Amino acid sequence: MSSELPDYAAFEAYLESLGLFHMELGPRRMHAALASLALTTLPHLAVQVVGTNGKGSTGAFLAGLLAAHGLPTGLYLSPHFRSVRERILLAGKPLPEADWLDAANAVLAATAPGGDAARLTYFELLTVMAAWMFTRQGAEAAVYEAGLGGAGDATTALTRDLVLFTPIGMDHASVIGPTLTDIAHDKALAMVPGGVAITGPQTPEALAVLHREADRLGTKLREAGKLASYDPSQRKAVLRGQKHLEIPHVKLRLAGPHQARNATLALAGFSLAAEILGLTPDPDAIRRALAETFIPGRLHLLRLPDMQAGLLLDCAHNPPALTALTEALASLAIKPTAVIYTCLADKDLDAMIPLVRNLTTGRIYVPELPGISRARPAAEVAKALGPQAHVVEDPAAALQAVRELPGTVLACGSMYLLAALFPAPAS
């Protein structure tokens, strides 16, 4: 057809034209697209992960657990660092560009008759493409990370067998807030009426909202700790499903106490998914999955050429995540020599300032983020941080400023900052 994208570069250009930050929450376009592609009901087990922080890690753990038991498993994540292909993984690996192009053309052909009214947003297009690719590739299970909120998120338009709730906190308050109760209510509406959901640890306020909405929707809401656990001090995982199973000698590759909580939620999700699928949990597979699961930008230590310090990347970008980061650094006895930090304009900078200041006694380098329309001006961030902060031109200049420091330099505050600091892929 004349409107068909001829190659992967054309797809990337089209995707960029949709606007990375453009949002139109609501299920109408998603439902129409899924119906046009005969994806109203997905042929694979679908698990949605909703919450404020820990969605990516929890999803990666769960996908790893399912894959380790021999299931072709898809994983849909956001955002990405170097390539959009990082967002749609099968068996932990990106699919070829040719498969992406086929998916894009299939989805665009299916939605073309609706004209501009049916034009999917950036995130919607990728969500439908993920469902299409996982189906086409014969996935037997797939884990879908929600983008923003729950009620109007594109992933909520998918049929789902299970919904997992990671910790809910203050973020995106201007869109789904302004209060924590409002945010929890929006995310709670991702629950499937009459379905099953599992929640990890929540504040009393958020937990009350989840229980209230579960009662209203007829959803069975389970607490992760009653289904599974992971104890990092004993390196032991436990499943408390139909059959009690203890797995010793389990070490997570992902570091920090918060990852133990994410692993617990994923284990709980796996416990119920295994019952649905008729799987028998295998201790060796569980041990291997938890030990091998990795996702970039989560306490991710890099050793860069000509840089004396280790560069520790963490995607903490809101107050709850920075609190978890502080806890993780203390547990690992890491005291950053300096910090590279900035944030987007829609984040609660005032709430993050004391948390960022406490990350280091050294300097805090605040770079501009060229090309990111939602970036907060570096001068504004530095002024709020006070005397510790020093404005630099861009992330490359920040790296240059810390190049000869000893110890560990921490970078956090924005996934887009971390993406700019990642080394270029080998050619």
- Could you tell me the radius of gyration in angstroms? 21 Å
Instruction: Give the N-terminus to C-terminus distance in angstroms.
Output: 34 Å
Q: Beta-sheet strand percentage?
A: 15-25%
Q: Which stretches are poorly predicted, pLDDT < 50 over at least 5 residues?
A: none
SS field, number of helical segments = 16
User: If you average the pLDDT, what whole number results?
Assistant: 93
Précis, in short:
The chain is α/β, with parallel strands linked by helices and 427 residues long. The protein has helices at 8-18, 28-36, 55-68, 97-111, 122-136, 173-176, 180-188, 204-217, 224-227, 257-277, 283-292, 319-331, 349-357, 378-385, 395-402, 415-421, and strands at 45-50, 73-76, 88-90, 93-94, 141-145, 162-165, 196-199, 220-223, 228-231, 236-240, 244-247, 300-302, 310-313, 338-341, 364-367, 389-392, 408-412.
Topology, please?
Layout: H1 8-18, H2 28-36, E1 45-50, H3 55-68, E2 73-76, E3 88-90, E4 93-94, H4 97-111, H5 122-136, E5 141-145, E6 162-165, H6 173-176, H7 180-188, E7 196-199, H8 204-217, E8 220-223, H9 224-227, E9 228-231, E10 236-240, E11 244-247, H10 257-277, H11 283-292, E12 300-302, E13 310-313, H12 319-331, E14 338-341, H13 349-357, E15 364-367, H14 378-385, E16 389-392, H15 395-402, E17 408-412, H16 415-421
Parallel strand pairs: 1-5, 1-6, 2-5, 6-7, 7-8, 13-17, 14-15, 14-17, 15-16
Antiparallel strand pairs: 2-3, 3-4, 9-10, 10-11, 12-13
Helix pairs in contact: 3-10, 3-11, 4-5, 7-8, 12-13
